[in-house]
Each structure stands twice: as C-alpha cells, then as structure tokens.
Design brief:
single chain, alpha+beta, HIT family, subunit A, 5-stranded antiparallel beta sheet, 5 strands, binds 2'-deoxyguanosine-5'-monophosphate
Length: 116
C-alpha cells in the first residue's frame, strides 16, 4: 500500500522523478540524489514498510530479495572486484531520513570502517 506522504512511495508511483535502474514485482532501485560514493543506489520495496524495525516475519523473503537485488546491482555497476557496502540505516539516530525501508549500495571508492 502506498503512503501518501512518503517520498519513496511517490517515486515508486512515478509522481517524483528518479533515475530508476532496476524494477521487478517487489522492488525498485534508483540512484541516490545525494550520492556519497561514485555508485550510490537505493533498493526500495514496492510495499511501504517504514524501517527494518517495522519488518515482520512475513517480510523475511522480501528482505532477502532486497539483498539479492543489491548484489545484482553492485555486480552490474562493476563493484564486485573492488567491493561494496549494503547499508540499512534504521531510525533517526542511525541516519535514517526517509521512513520507507531501503538498502543503500555504495561503492567505487575506498569505504572506511567503522562508518561514522
Ligand atoms: P537514509 O538517510 O538512510 O534514510 O537515506 C535516504 C536517502 O534518500 C538519502 O541518501 C538521500 C536520498 N534521497 C532523498 N530524497 C531523494 C529524492 O528525492 N530522490 C532520490 N533519488 N534520492 C533521495
């Protein structure tokens, strides 16, 4: 179900433009508008789930699917050799600013650990 005031639901519905690079029946991937690395893609479930913390047992297959899509995109973006990071910020304190679950895929530069 799309949430009216959710930015990513509006992107999924095509109301707000985005550079979509992948779409299937359960997810959409588009480039982050505020890229933190040469490759920075967001993988978003088509269904509105506020955060990882809101995902339930019913969403287990979907969560696995999002990670598989993340790996596929990383591969297509040429990141397999150099490595990449898949990140799910959960909650304001961890940097979540859009409350529609999403996986960040970052790569194309050295990624430090621990992240800030
Ligand atoms: P997070 O802070 O983990 O909730 O990540 C939200 C990301 O969404 C952030 O990296 C910037 C990105 N973002 C915010 N608004 C837009 C937008 O309108 N279009 C796109 N493509 N990305 C957006």
């Amino acid at each position: 179900m799309a949430e009216q005031n959710c930015l990513f639901c509006r992107i999924l519905e095509g109301e707000i433009p985005a550079e979509v690079i992948y779409r299937d029946d359960r997810s959409v991937a588009f480039r982050d508008i505020n890229a933190q690395a040469p490759v920075h893609v967001l993988i978003v479930p088509s269904e509105h789930i506020e955060s990882l913390d809101e995902a339930s047992q019913r969403d287990e297959a979907l969560l696995g699917h999002l990670l598989r899509v993340a790996a596929r995109i990383a591969n297509e973006e040429g990141l397999t050799e150099s490595g990449y990071r898949a990140v799910i910020n959960t909650g304001e304190g961890a940097g979540q600013s859009v409350f529609h679950l999403h996986v960040h895929v970052l790569g194309g530069r050295p990624l430090n650990w621990p992240p800030g």
